[in-house]
């Protein structure tokens, strides 16, 4: 009985000591370790190579680990990744998360892009927290990059490569190949013809250069002729034009003098036309009357003599039957 009681006592002491050691170890770990904060990341892409316990880095510096991975039930297109990072990691506004793959098949969550002086990513208070932090922890936005971006765009890339291959196959059909061969043959014949015509082409180019030179000389001669014409105009035509201008000026002055003389004679002409001409007309009429009277007197003298001027004309004798 005593032996069994001693064994139970020893076992109890050992268990107590082990518990104390475990508690001491946890306490030491808490003292030596830093506090951590949890964040959610919603990836709209495959998370191949990512698992619970995968490393989380900030700008390449190990800063935490992945705590859990699950599909987001409200929208299965998203994969929710819960991470925990050290409390001193600067998860500020502008920080984004990407999945960095490797050739070994393991992936890590990479954080970067924090803006200096920005506020930390936290959950707001009130009703807005449900939309911003649906599971009660802050959400870090994502961006596609690295191998993940290549893998996500791989289907589109393969589709485009397939389309390009089909088009190239259509272009390289037997008919198109024959056409391309014909074009190459024609090009070769044209090249040979140009090579054979090389001397003629060179002669043509030489003649062209001579023609261009002659055209330049003709242009210079035309310029000299234009200068000579300008000189003639300046030396001969301009004096003649000056004399002509003087003659025109003299004629203008003469015309002005004649206009002045006519203006001076105009009152006399007016008086002559209004007074003298009517008087002359009256004189002519009086002369006509006088001439008629003299004609009548001469006729009376001829018929009756001078006595007819002072007496009545004698009546003719009447003889009765």
TrEMBL record:
Mce/MlaD domain residues: 41-111
Entry protein name: Phospholipid/cholesterol/gamma-HCH transport system substrate-binding protein
Region (Disordered): 302-321
Keywords: Membrane, Transmembrane, Transmembrane helix
Transmembrane segments: 7-29
InterPro entries in alphabetical order: Mce/MlaD
